[in-house]
């Protein structure tokens, strides 16, 4: 009896240790993985139990087995760092193994920001309370701008002043401007924040000139603590208005007040601006925002769905992220349409509903190709037979196959599952891993960048 009790106690102690270890592993991964990736892939995981030398972790579905492919090195590094002699096994929640082995779940570590007190529902009338730092999904193309925006709230007027944000339509510039304003208002309730578009600034100034109330206009814009100016390109070619803005700009900087400007072009690319204004804009920190990559788009969709209190299946998120990639507005617009259409038709949000409701997205991508056409072009480039790209195991063929999958996702209407089936019956999470691999190489390897450009051009896309 004593031995049995002793064994039970030891087992409980072993499970407790394993549970704590998974929490510690998550803490390590949180430091190394972008926030939106952690929230999308690792936050939903739950500790199941310990079986032999296997630490069992439940994941919502087979889609999340992507974690094993994507973060193998980081998981192994975490085990070594914690001196754990075990392997991590991810078990989809709908599998028989998960149902048999699942124990009491342990919540993942809470976000450092979740301990903050409740924020006011709204700030200045010009600011959208929905645009916050918490609701902004950070990706590789926006991390620098996001970090800079966060920093100036901590030390307004002293760090990165002015801050110049630029990027194409729907990349998150306006979101960050509002997030800065909302965060600053929350931290400094008595401070004054002014958000204005270039068009509004021009309109109000012309009205003030006409009504001879320029003194009032200047008093309002030159005494704020934070000026957030969106779409400054609207001032191009308007000499008198630029002069007024330049004086406002100088007055705020002299008083160490924060100025943040957003534009669709970098300061150097802007035309029709006074040389002095050009110089002022380039004197601060210039940060660009790029079109979100595939992984970031998936994160944006899950974040938006959570805000709408909608459960978004992973395969639906992958489908939308594959076909709506022009910018964040198109992405969120597609999800909004899907939610509204599903509700009006009394249908659940699933892949069949998404394919029916969002078929217009497929039509917006002109001259789409077949997977086989893309595979043939890649095989020809590497002097390989097409069948070689479908082989089960061959390290030497990994890069050509990754590239073929990446281009198939970029240039065809095929879903990730269809691409995976074409390339030897691989799971769509393997396709997702290949896409991510090539996206990373494009950023650091000029040869891969040139190869993608050459193949895209030869296939009729540039």
TrEMBL record:
<dbReference type="GO" id="GO:0005524">
    <property type="term" value="F:ATP binding"/>
</dbReference>
<dbReference type="InterPro" id="IPR003593">
    <property type="entry name" value="AAA+_ATPase"/>
</dbReference>
<protein>
    <recommendedName>
        <fullName>Chromosomal replication initiator protein DnaA</fullName>
    </recommendedName>
</protein>
<dbReference type="InterPro" id="IPR018312">
    <property type="entry name" value="Chromosome_initiator_DnaA_CS"/>
</dbReference>
<keyword id="KW-0547">Nucleotide-binding</keyword>
<dbReference type="Pfam" id="PF00308">
    <property type="entry name" value="Bac_DnaA"/>
</dbReference>
<feature type="binding site">
    <location>
        <position position="170"/>
    </location>
    <ligand>
        <name>ATP</name>
    </ligand>
</feature>
<dbReference type="GO" id="GO:0003688">
    <property type="term" value="F:DNA replication origin binding"/>
</dbReference>
<dbReference type="Pfam" id="PF11638">
    <property type="entry name" value="DnaA_N"/>
</dbReference>
<feature type="region of interest" description="Disordered">
    <location>
        <begin position="95"/>
        <end position="128"/>
    </location>
</feature>
<dbReference type="InterPro" id="IPR024633">
    <property type="entry name" value="DnaA_N_dom"/>
</dbReference>
<dbReference type="InterPro" id="IPR001957">
    <property type="entry name" value="Chromosome_initiator_DnaA"/>
</dbReference>
<keyword id="KW-0238">DNA-binding</keyword>
<comment type="subunit">
    <text>Oligomerizes as a right-handed, spiral filament on DNA at oriC.</text>
</comment>
<dbReference type="InterPro" id="IPR020591">
    <property type="entry name" value="Chromosome_initiator_DnaA-like"/>
</dbReference>
<feature type="domain" description="Chromosomal replication initiator DnaA C-terminal">
    <location>
        <begin position="370"/>
        <end position="438"/>
    </location>
</feature>
<dbReference type="GO" id="GO:0005886">
    <property type="term" value="C:plasma membrane"/>
</dbReference>
<dbReference type="InterPro" id="IPR013159">
    <property type="entry name" value="DnaA_C"/>
</dbReference>
<feature type="region of interest" description="Domain IV, binds dsDNA">
    <location>
        <begin position="343"/>
        <end position="462"/>
    </location>
</feature>
<keyword id="KW-0963">Cytoplasm</keyword>
<dbReference type="GO" id="GO:0006270">
    <property type="term" value="P:DNA replication initiation"/>
</dbReference>
<comment type="function">
    <text>Plays an essential role in the initiation and regulation of chromosomal replication. ATP-DnaA binds to the origin of replication (oriC) to initiate formation of the DNA replication initiation complex once per cell cycle. Binds the DnaA box (a 9 base pair repeat at the origin) and separates the double-stranded (ds)DNA. Forms a right-handed helical filament on oriC DNA; dsDNA binds to the exterior of the filament while single-stranded (ss)DNA is stabiized in the filament's interior.</text>
</comment>
<keyword id="KW-0067">ATP-binding</keyword>
<feature type="compositionally biased region" description="Low complexity">
    <location>
        <begin position="104"/>
        <end position="114"/>
    </location>
</feature>
<dbReference type="InterPro" id="IPR010921">
    <property type="entry name" value="Trp_repressor/repl_initiator"/>
</dbReference>
<keyword id="KW-0446">Lipid-binding</keyword>
<dbReference type="InterPro" id="IPR027417">
    <property type="entry name" value="P-loop_NTPase"/>
</dbReference>
<comment type="similarity">
    <text>Belongs to the DnaA family.</text>
</comment>
<feature type="binding site">
    <location>
        <position position="174"/>
    </location>
    <ligand>
        <name>ATP</name>
    </ligand>
</feature>
<keyword id="KW-0235">DNA replication</keyword>
<dbReference type="GO" id="GO:0006275">
    <property type="term" value="P:regulation of DNA replication"/>
</dbReference>
<feature type="region of interest" description="Domain III, AAA+ region">
    <location>
        <begin position="126"/>
        <end position="342"/>
    </location>
</feature>
<dbReference type="InterPro" id="IPR038454">
    <property type="entry name" value="DnaA_N_sf"/>
</dbReference>
<feature type="binding site">
    <location>
        <position position="173"/>
    </location>
    <ligand>
        <name>ATP</name>
    </ligand>
</feature>
<dbReference type="GO" id="GO:0005737">
    <property type="term" value="C:cytoplasm"/>
</dbReference>
<dbReference type="InterPro" id="IPR013317">
    <property type="entry name" value="DnaA_dom"/>
</dbReference>
<dbReference type="GO" id="GO:0008289">
    <property type="term" value="F:lipid binding"/>
</dbReference>
<feature type="binding site">
    <location>
        <position position="172"/>
    </location>
    <ligand>
        <name>ATP</name>
    </ligand>
</feature>
<feature type="region of interest" description="Domain I, interacts with DnaA modulators">
    <location>
        <begin position="1"/>
        <end position="105"/>
    </location>
</feature>
<feature type="domain" description="AAA+ ATPase">
    <location>
        <begin position="159"/>
        <end position="345"/>
    </location>
</feature>
<dbReference type="Pfam" id="PF08299">
    <property type="entry name" value="Bac_DnaA_C"/>
</dbReference>
């Amino acid at each position: 009896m004593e031995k049995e009790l002793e064994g039970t106690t030891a087992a409980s102690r072993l499970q407790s240790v394993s549970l704590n270890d998974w929490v510690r592993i998550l803490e390590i991964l949180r430091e190394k993985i972008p926030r939106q990736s952690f929230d999308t892939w690792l936050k939903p995981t739950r500790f199941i139990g310990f079986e032999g030398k296997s630490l069992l972790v439940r994941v919502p579905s087979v889609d999340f087995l992507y974690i094993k492919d994507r973060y193998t090195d980081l998981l192994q590094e975490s085990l070594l760092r914690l001196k754990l002699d075990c392997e991590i096994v991810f078990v989809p929640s709908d599998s028989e193994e998960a149902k048999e082995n699942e124990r009491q779940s342990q919540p993942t570590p809470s976000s450092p920001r979740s301990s903050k007190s409740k924020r006011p529902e709204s700030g200045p009338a010009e600011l959208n309370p929905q645009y916050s730092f918490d609701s902004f999904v950070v990706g590789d193309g926006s991390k620098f701008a996001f970090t800079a925006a966060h920093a100036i709230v901590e030390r307004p007027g002293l760090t990165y002043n002015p801050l110049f944000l630029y990027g194409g339509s729907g990349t998150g510039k306006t979101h960050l401007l509002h997030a800065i304003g909302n965060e600053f208002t929350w931290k400094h309730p008595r401070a004054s924040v002014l958000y204005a578009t270039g068009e509004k600034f021009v309109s109000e100034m012309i009205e003030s000139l006409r009504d001879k109330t320029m003194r009032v206009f200047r008093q309002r814009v030159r005494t704020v603590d934070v000026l957030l100016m969106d779409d400054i390109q609207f001032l191009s070619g308007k000499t008198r208005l630029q002069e007024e803005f330049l004086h406002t700009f100088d007055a705020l900087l002299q008083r160490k007040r924060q100025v943040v400007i957003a534009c669709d072009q970098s300061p150097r690319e802007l035309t029709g601006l006074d040389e002095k204004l050009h110089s002022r804009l380039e004197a601060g920190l210039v940060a660009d925002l790029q079109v979100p990559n595939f992984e970031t788009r998936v994160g944006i969709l899950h974040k938006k769905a959570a805000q709408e209190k909608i459960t978004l299946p992973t395969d639906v998120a992958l489908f939308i992220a594959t076909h709506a990639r022009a910018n964040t507005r198109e992405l969120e617009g597609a999800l909004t349409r899907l939610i509204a259409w599903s509700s009006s038709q009394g249908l659940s949000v699933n892949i069949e509903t998404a394919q029916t409701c969002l078929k217009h997205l497929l039509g917006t991508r002109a001259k789409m190709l077949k997977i086989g056409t893309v595979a043939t072009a890649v095989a020809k480039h590497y002097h390989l037979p097409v069948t070689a790209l479908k082989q089960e195991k061959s390290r030497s063929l990994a890069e050509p196959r990754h590239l073929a999958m990446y281009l198939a996702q970029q240039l065809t209407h095929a879903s990730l599952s269809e691409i995976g089936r074409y390339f030897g019956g691989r799971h769509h999470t393997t396709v997702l891993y290949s896409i991510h691999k090539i996206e990373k190489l494009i950023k650091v390897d000029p040869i891969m960048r040139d190869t993608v450009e050459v193949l895209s051009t030869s296939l009729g896309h540039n």
